[in-house]
Amino acid sequence: MAMIRNRSRHRLVALSLILPFAAIFALVFAYPVAEVVRMSFTDAPLIGGGDWVGWDNYARLLSDRLFYTSLKNNGYFVLLTVVPTTAIALAIALAVNRLSGRMQALALVLFFTPYVLPVSVVTQIWAWMLDFQFGVLQPVIEFFTGKPVPVFKNPNWVMPAVAVVTIWWTNGFNVLLFLAGLRNIPTELYEAAALDGATRRQLFGRITWPLLWPVTALVLTLQLILQLKIFDQVYLLSEGGPFNSSYVLLLMVYREAFQLNNGGYAAAVSLVLFLLIVVISILQFQILRIGGRKS
Amino acid sequence: MTYKAFTLASAVAALLAGAPASAQQTVTWWDFLSGGDGVRMKALIDQFNSEHPDIQVQATTLEWGVPFYTKVRTSAAVGRGPDVMTYHLSRLPLGLAEEVLTPITAEDLDTAGLAEEDFFATALDAGKDAEGALYAIPFDIHAIVLYYNASYLEGSRFLDDEGKLTGIESLADFEEALALAAENGAESPVTYATGDDGGTYRVFYTLLAQQGGTLISDEGEILPGDSTEKAVRAVEIMTKWHQEGWQPEQALYEASVALFTSGKSAFQLNGVWEVPTMTDLEDAGDLGFDWGAVEIPQLMDQQVTWADSHGFAIPVQGDAPMDPEKREAVMTVIGWMEKNAIQWADAGHIPAYKPVAESEEFAAMQPNATYASLADRAAYDPRSEIAGVASPAYDVAINIISPAIHGYLSPEDAVEQMKAELQSRLR
């Protein structure tokens, strides 16, 4: 009897602890998501209701050239950032891990500082550094290409340039994750392996890499989600141009909703992006887990 | 009396004591005017407030462009918008489609002491919907003009005896002047914001309109008929200026202005709103050359110039109509502003209100009076939801025209892409 009462009491306590979160989640996430789904089937403007149009918005999406351009650019951007940023962060973490004490702290601060900056500051810094007329990096570009390049106005340069800015900006956080992962690897393993005469390469390949894999998989997944959501940097640096070569899905959502007042269509685009992120990230995480188990 | 009732009563009493004796109208005003425009508008509002004890204008300045119009739409829909706001007439079609504007009736104009005949027809038309109902009262006409630096033209046929620009009557004349300026050491003989949306759009639209081309027809067709070829021609001209090294490469707005003010350009194609910059520099003795500004010459088949207007509009107040007394106060504010527009002209603009534009005071204002002739030949943006300030038409300028004139795409392909792009934005 007493046990049963205790259990129901337990449940009550648990419920009351969960409730605040559940309520807030329902209010600021579940409800808006449900509204977006509903809106995507209407021709609603940004404010106010609209008429039910069924699958029209989605049909229109499939025939919208800009949608495919944006999709392609999102994919291109993911290719340009996700694996490179993970590799760079791992390399930096390995290097920083070999430092000790204050030097390590200093190195960490240096790599982490960009992450603290707001996106507008980051883009402003890079826009100045890469400015076509006065940018301090233009002589460097000129050295390699023979002439200054307006990087955010050149269809071939714009996406890689935005990718470089993004990697510089967000890398510090990944370094931190990797460093935490590295610290979790027991040093005895390295000592034992060293006694057995393992080389540096073997230490990395047989101990560090497999034990770090869960962190690597996490970083890759987080990056994938983050980079699929690219918007701010493109909006601030290139506005989607030139020739739509940096037009991405979220920019499309923004323009449709706020500039053209097509709330329903914008909702449909954002929902497609949402589903895309969910599906791709679940797929990726599963594949990475399987890959991790094999090795 | 309970404690609760007591506090309530004292709160009410305090409120009543704080309120002025007479019924005073507070007019909430939103604008997007910054820089020199903003300073002049604030001065006008302050003067209005001091002259009208019964009406107080409470002004807020918001960010120009998409943020402003988004905010107006969302706030007006729920009745939390302003009582009066500035509005680009080129953006009127979107405002009409969104149903955020209220029509301005003949009685409203009476209250303000204004009449339709008092305004330049080009500007007034831009403030009306397709059926001819007035939704925004034009305050000014602002266009691009041709600024010139006389020092590069000295001794040539392009200056008259008084040192004023003359002799540019065709594209060939203008390009001859550009070549001459280049010879005389001008770094960029003609400057405009080649790397920005506004600068590129305005020059393109002027060149298109001077050939009689239409960007978007009333039926919603993009570059109908031979307008396509005319658009190609316009892009070709801008591309040529780039290839000859006559215009700056990828110049952002500020850089394009700096090229002219620092004396490195012989000409500038830019809005009248930069006139105060020039007069201020000249007054401070920092300019170092003689300058002037004239209406864009006839380079193509006819003399017209891209133009837009700042106007006043009254947004809807949610579902409720505006209190008639409040509306009267709003119209009083608008009427007063129009009649005092001479101070606004100081910012380079041409008053849309003819009694001011034709006054002796304005005639004495230079260079405004020189280029005021453009008011009758103003080419406003097409009447379309996707045209006007901060619209897809501007996006196309930065996305397609600007890179094309820098050689990343041929004029023909650029115009094709532009058509497809704009067509896809039309529902």
UniProtKB/TrEMBL annotation, chain A:
Q: Where in the cell is it found?
A: Cell membrane
CC terms in the record's Gene Ontology section:
plasma membrane
**PROSITE patterns found in the cross-reference section:** ABC_TM1 (PS50928)
One GO biological-process annotation of the entry reads: transmembrane transport
User: What CDD domains does this protein's entry cite?
Assistant: TM_PBP2 (cd06261)
Q: Membrane-spanning regions, if any?
A: 76-96, 108-129, 157-182, 203-226, 265-285
Q: Which family does it belong to?
A: Belongs to the binding-protein-dependent transport system permease family.
Spell out the protein name for this chain: Carbohydrate ABC transporter membrane protein 1, CUT1 family (TC 3.A.1.1.-)
From TrEMBL, chain B:
Give a Gene Ontology cellular component term annotated to this protein.
ATP-binding cassette (ABC) transporter complex, substrate-binding subunit-containing
A Gene Ontology biological process in which this protein takes part is: maltodextrin transmembrane transport
Range of residues in the leader sequence: 1-23
User: Keywords assigned by UniProt?
Assistant: Signal, Transport
Write out the coiled-coil annotation as residue ranges.
none
- According to the lineage, what is the superkingdom? Bacteria
- Keyword Nucleotide-binding belongs to the record: no
Q: Which GO terms describe its molecular function?
A: maltose binding
Q: Which family does it belong to?
A: Belongs to the bacterial solute-binding protein 1 family.
What is the name of the protein in this document?
A: Carbohydrate ABC transporter substrate-binding protein, CUT1 family (TC 3.A.1.1.-)
